[in-house]
Design brief:
globular, mainly beta, single chain, 4-stranded antiparallel sheet, F-box-assoc_dom_typ3, 1 helix, F-box associated beta-propeller type 3 domain-containing protein
């Protein structure tokens, strides 16, 4: 759900898959709709480009920054995020930092709001190094690496667990949904 600023209405973006689809069969289609709240008429169909259809399987909610919803690539090795502009009501892609995906394979990426700026946290494949990137220039899609955190191999990081790094005023919380463990970091850096 989002606020459509030009009309002042709240709207819901949702998709529906019809037809048969599994890991070996890509038949069927994903339909994307916008529904006005309160519902005044039938939902309006909008085009979800084929390249972005993976977001329908993203378990994480999108992050709202600058009037746009941003979906992270999750565990996929994509180097782009899917963006939905809530005013134009259209989809586009946004480059993620190339250096975050260079060399070692990355996993468990998450987008998050870092004091009004888009942040990206990602772990290396071994789960022992986390990086936190911040989108410094939204229009030019310029990212900067803010933190690199090394963990011991016996730490809570592993691919069997899901992780998220959040930051607020220079502090970070690293947690695992599956094991209910958490570690707090105080970082002294400014964004």
């Amino acid at each position: 759900m989002y606020l459509h600023r030009p009309s002042g209405e709240y709207r819901a973006l949702y998709w529906h898959h019809r037809g048969h689809k599994n890991h070996t069969n890509n038949e069927g289609e994903t339909l994307c709709y916008i529904l006005r709240v309160p519902r005044a008429r039938e939902p309006r169909h909008i085009v979800l480009p084929a390249a972005y259809r993976g977001i329908v399987h993203c378990p994480n909610p999108p992050v709202m920054i600058r009037g746009c919803l941003h979906w992270d690539p999750g565990r996929c090795s994509l180097d782009t995020a899917v963006v939905f502009d809530t005013e134009a009501e259209s989809f586009r892609s946004m480059r993620l930092p190339a250096a975050a995906f260079a060399g070692n394979s990355r996993s468990c990426t998450r987008l998050h709001d870092m004091d009004g700026m888009l942040g990206l946290s990602c772990f290396d494949e071994s789960g022992t190094v986390a990086e936190v990137w911040v989108l410094e220039d939204y229009e030019r899609e310029v990212w900067s690496l803010k933190y690199k955190i090394n963990f011991s191999s016996d730490s809570m990081c592993s691919l069997a667990k899901r992780h998220l790094v959040l930051s607020h005023e220079g502090d970070m919380l690293l947690y695992s949904n599956s094991s209910l463990e958490a570690t707090w970091f105080t970082m002294r850096a400014s964004f």
